[in-house]
Design a protein that fits this description.
about 180 residues, about 75% helix, mainly alpha, 9 helices, about 0% strand
Length: about 180
């Protein structure tokens, strides 16, 4: 279950923070808490896996989750669909970026963004060169959302029919995960 994965993959203080985040997303937008925990846990464990400290990994995971729901809202997708695309991007599959409106993303662009972030002092310490792409990807996703007007889209439109359908899709995700 998402709760078990959360407790196995993250330290106790991070579990509490993720649970508060999931609860807040449920209260504000009726997003399924289990699906939200799963989404944040996936992102956080990916960032922890490259050596980012737990607190920063959870912060990045929450930012990725926020971006996922905004992209889902703007692109008429479920949060899980966008999360799957973002996780594929994190695994290095830049070809799927077009599916969320990030056109022409390449490894070279990720490297350039990573170098820019490092110059600006926005890169975590103690991660290797290859792992810097993960951090660069987060910034590219957020910048693209802002450029396309996606940032805050879920909040602005959460009561509209399309987003209510996305909420239903998000609520089915944990069940589909259990059933297979």
């Amino acid at each position: 279950s998402a709760q078990n994965r959360l407790e196995i993959l993250l330290p106790e203080e991070a579990v509490d923070r993720v649970e508060r985040y999931a609860d807040a997303m449920n209260d504000a937008y009726r997003l399924n808490e289990t699906a939200t925990k799963s989404r944040v846990t996936n992102f956080a464990s990916a960032y922890r896996g490259i050596g980012v400290d737990t607190e920063t990994a959870v912060e990045y995971a929450e930012r990725m989750s926020n971006a996922a729901i905004d992209y889902a809202s703007a692109l008429d997708k479920t949060p899980q669909e966008v999360t799957d695309i973002m996780m594929s991007l994190m695994r290095g599959n830049t070809a799927v970026a077009d599916n969320i409106g990030i056109f022409g993303l390449t490894v070279d662009k990720l490297d350039k963004k990573a170098a820019e972030l490092e110059t600006r002092g926005l890169m975590p310490e103690n991660i290797d060169e290859a792992s810097k792409k993960y951090v660069a990807l987060l910034h590219i996703i957020e910048e693209n959302a802002a450029l396309q007007g996606f940032t805050g889209d879920w909040e602005r439109t959460s009561s509209e029919f399309g987003n209510q359908v996305s909420v239903l899709g998000d609520q089915w995700a944990p069940l589909k995960e259990k059933v297979g």
